Amino acid sequence: MLNIEWIILYIALGSFVGFMSGLLGVGGGGLLVPLFASIFIYQGFSADSVVHLALGTSLACMIISSASSLRAHAYRGAVMWDVVKGMTPGIILGAFIATQIASHVNSSYIAIFFALFMALVALQTFIKWQPKPSHKPRTLLGLIMSGLGIGAISALAAVGGGFLTVVYLGYKNVDIKRSIGTSAAIGFPIAITGTIGYMINGWAATMDEPYTFGFIYIPAFLAISISSAISAPYGARRSHNMPEANLKKIFAIICMVLSIKMLVSFW
Q: In its keyword annotation, does this UniProt entry include Thylakoid (predicted)?
């Protein structure tokens, strides 16, 4: 059931996620998925579809934030467009295949995958792990295959691919600023393809659910997209006055707590 209290909650959630996205340069999917899953259960959605709705709606919300981030990094010349063009075909294919698979997988298994993946992201944040750089040149086939994997995992965990893309480009001897900028550009096709995939594959499953378009919950998408777009610039301004390393650790802890909560709820 939808009422004004839920709309206010989604606006507040969008403001928080947008602020954190601007502050830390992340897409916010790691925060949105477990929160969406809990909220959708309270709203009365079927337990069999809440994780799929959470994933699809999170990716839809990331379209606007990804576009904004892409524009900002492109303006600063930090996007490696040859890498984006090489990885995009694999990303689109991987994300679309993953959404088709996800629509036929039990919510509990997807919740487990999400929790484990976010645990990996949190661990990498704490230990600052990076693979040893490779001296082999980038190839078109290598970019397509890496895009395939990044697109698939990102669609299953509703993340923009930033973590995986930055790690991959670091492995290919790309400096961190260009890695982050290129990652922001790659997050845009992931968000669009994942959203379309969850719309199509969730159409039959949510026909009787109000305010849904496939596995996209429209009120949450609209409220969070608008409020996060407003709050993100404030987070970006604050990021220059706060220690990034400590903030990322706090963000990782929050993601871990929320992910564990979702995992326990579906165990």
A: no
State phi, psi for 26 to the nearest 5 degrees.
Answer: -115, 160
Domain layout of the chain by residue ranges: 4-266
User: Which tokens sit at 213?
Assistant: 């378009």
Q: Would you call 217 helix, strand, or coil by DSSP?
A: strand
Q: What is the share, in percent, of the chain residues with pLDDT greater than 90?
A: 16
- Report the Cα–Cα distance between both ends of the chain, in Å, rounded: 25
**Which ranges in the chain belong to alpha helices (H)?**
4-24, 29-42, 50-75, 81-102, 107-127, 140-157, 162-171, 176-201, 218-238, 244-266
Q: What is the pLDDT of residues 25-67, one digit of tens each?
A: 566 677 788 888 888 988 888 877 888 899 899 989 888 877 7
Instruction: Tell me the whole-structure pTM to 2 decimals.
Output: 0.81
